[in-house]
TrEMBL record:
Protein name per its UniProtKB record: TIGR02301 family protein
Lineage of the species this protein comes from: Bacteria, Pseudomonadati, Pseudomonadota, Alphaproteobacteria, Hyphomicrobiales
UniProt keywords, alphabetically: Signal
Organism: Parvibaculum lavamentivorans (strain DS-1 / DSM 13023 / NCIMB 13966)
Source superkingdom: Bacteria
Signal peptide: 1-27
Length: 126
């Protein structure tokens, strides 16, 4: 009898757990955050190339963004990959600071500001 009572209790507990609502799935990071990672990677190269002496500022901004976003491990890897891909793409395209490179850096910084503003208005901190 005791064994049967335990089995019924275990079954009831399992049914209660199965019926409990699942917590909502965490929403995926917005695409604009992936774009911002690319902008940060490109700006990191171009601003260094053009002698702004900002050191790791843009890399640190990337780290700060990931801290605020709290991405899953997969999303974290995707953000890092986007940053690194953009960095290397711009490094291959611009080996010296030209007016074109400086102009591209300025344009990217404007794009980055726009993306950061969109993310902030969507609930992500800065």
């Amino acid at each position: 009898m005791r064994g049967r009572k335990r089995a019924v209790c275990a079954l009831l507990a399992a049914l209660m757990l199965a019926a409990a609502p699942m917590p909502p799935a965490r929403a995926a990071l917005p695409g604009s955050m992936m774009q911002l990672a690319e902008v940060l990677g490109a700006v990191h190269h171009l601003r260094t190339l053009c002698g702004t002496n900002e050191g790791p500022l843009w890399r640190n901004k990337m780290i700060e963004m990931m801290g605020v976003a709290d991405p899953s491990e997969t999303e974290r890897q995707q953000l890092i990959q986007r940053f690194n891909d953009a960095y290397h793409r711009y490094r291959n395209s611009y080996q010296t600071c030209t007016s074109t490179a400086a102009g591209q850096a300025d344009k990217l910084m404007q794009d980055g500001q726009r993306l950061a503003d969109e993310l902030a208005s969507g609930g992500y901190g800065r």
